[in-house]
Amino acid sequence: MRALAITEENFHNQRETVKEERRLRIDNPPYTAAFVDGMTWPFDSATCFAYAHTVIGSMDDLNAAQLGDVQAFFGTYYAPNNATLVVVGDFRPLEVRRLVNQYFSEIPRHADPPPVTCDVRFSPGIMHREVTDQHANLPAVVRIYRVPSHADPDTPALELLNIILGQGESSRLNVHAADPVCCSPWRSRTRTLTRSGSTPSSRPSSTRSARPASPPRS
Hints:
40% of the residues lie in helices and 5% in strands. The protein is mainly alpha-helical. It has 2 domains: 8-104, 2-Layer Sandwich (Cytochrome Bc1 Complex, Chain A, domain 1), CATH 3.30.830; 140-209, no CATH class. The radius of gyration is 23 Å and the shape is extended.
């Protein structure tokens, strides 16, 4: 926050590291393209930039980034008034406060960063999208639902529904969908790989039939 060396050499080194991480985690693993599309497509980059792209960024963004961009980002967001300090364990609050003042009080605050806004481009009803993945050997189906935030009172009930549907050998998706036509379910994301000979078109009816008649009550 106070002494980060943002030099051309360090910038180039870290940019190549991030690009390699993107190849490893985003570009090359099978089925990642569909999942990324499902998570980012509902958001418009102009009105909700934070959710309209992956955190790691695109290769075009990484290639176009300049040292000045990183320095400007650091100057905007890396400031004590935009930081959260987490202290965990058996500690004395007064001693922690003394150490915080010792190491951080001399770092000047910056101007408050601009607020983050997001206008969600969601339409009612079911949306279908098809993504071509050159790394996938079998077709897959990804079902993504818009749910409340983690702080919503309904979230515990949704977490319980997640357990009933997709966790354990006796879960609904394992019994009614995974064994007959799928290789595996992925819990709350309800993402499934089809067995050889099955098609993605057969998946929605199978996963729907595995759902409880009504959501569990918390």
